[in-house]
Amino acid sequence: MKSINIKDIARLAGVGVSTVSRVINQHPDVKAETRENILKIIEEYNYIPNNSARNLKRTETDDVGILIKGLYNPFFAQMLGSIENILSQNGYGLLSHYNGDNSASQLDSLRSNEHMRDIDIAYEFIMEKKLCGLICLGGDFNDVTEKDLLRLGVPLIVASTNMDESINKNLYSSVAIDNERAAFDAVTYLCDEGHRHIGIITTGAGDLSIGTARTRGYMNALSNAGISKNELYFDMGAYTFETAYEAMNRLLDKAPELTAVFAISDIMAIGASKAILDRGLKIPEDISVIGFDDIDYAAFFNPTLTTVRQPVREIAISTGELMVGLLESVENHKHVQFPTKLMIRDSSCSNRENGGENK
């Protein structure tokens, strides 16, 4: 019997490829009747993901690489398990590589914009490990050219980061959120609550992706509220507790009138919060704090952290399923965007009683 692929299963069942993938990966969000029909077809045709006939056509390994920005990012750590589960159930291995050390040296590179391009690191990873596909969790890809993408030679998915809008979208896939809009909504919430002196802990010129987008959202929110940009309200960290702690101390020294601070990641927000508390100030009574990502720590930090929630599980599942579809040659490149939600918790409060002025 001629071997069939996941696209054939989908056609025979009258459903989409993603539905077949969900059944294979035992996701609960498939109707029982549909699930039973797909499983019957899989059994009838003896379909095995990643069959040997397909392997004979490839010189690469069956390993998908995951290039992770930063030595340890809790948000990406939450994604890894779901992605690995989907890939392994479809016959693929997973190799991870951490890009960047999340230290003071990384902050120096962010400030100076002098560091090896992430797309070049991706190419070396693919060549060294003979990968059949690559997923990038985070990273800076705004300087990527179409020639760079063609050179990779394998399916690429960028997740939780951005690619330059001018790049041909048929050359890569993406799974992300609207970082600029989410940051805009978070800072607009602070403005609506009466805050006028709002600081930001962000990244430097070397961060061409998420940091830039979230900073742009911050500035647009202030402009929309009629608040002028104040250079003293900006400081930089490198997605770590330590660098954000130092950045918050600098902000408190140069702008003691701040009533709120927006950090572009939860890790940075927690580092900033420690600096505030170590000064003998109270959160949120003296300074409100907002983070971004809604990592597990956010709901257990004291005070619980107001933050932007990304749908981490949905992003991970979509990324894994999309990679399987690309490797099976049954999916074209896609660009998926998920909504976010502002989780209002104990680290923020209104400043209206003071007319928007410092308390």
UniProtKB/TrEMBL annotation:
The keyword Acetylation belongs to this UniProt entry's keyword annotation: no
Keywords: DNA-binding, Transcription, Transcription regulation
Record GO terms (molecular function): DNA binding
Classification via InterPro entries: HTH_LacI, LacI/GalR-like_sensor, Lambda_DNA-bd_dom_sf, Peripla_BP_I
Organism name: Fusibacter ferrireducens
Pfam families in the cross-refs: LacI, Peripla_BP_3
Protein name: LacI family DNA-binding transcriptional regulator
Domain HTH lacI-type: 4-58
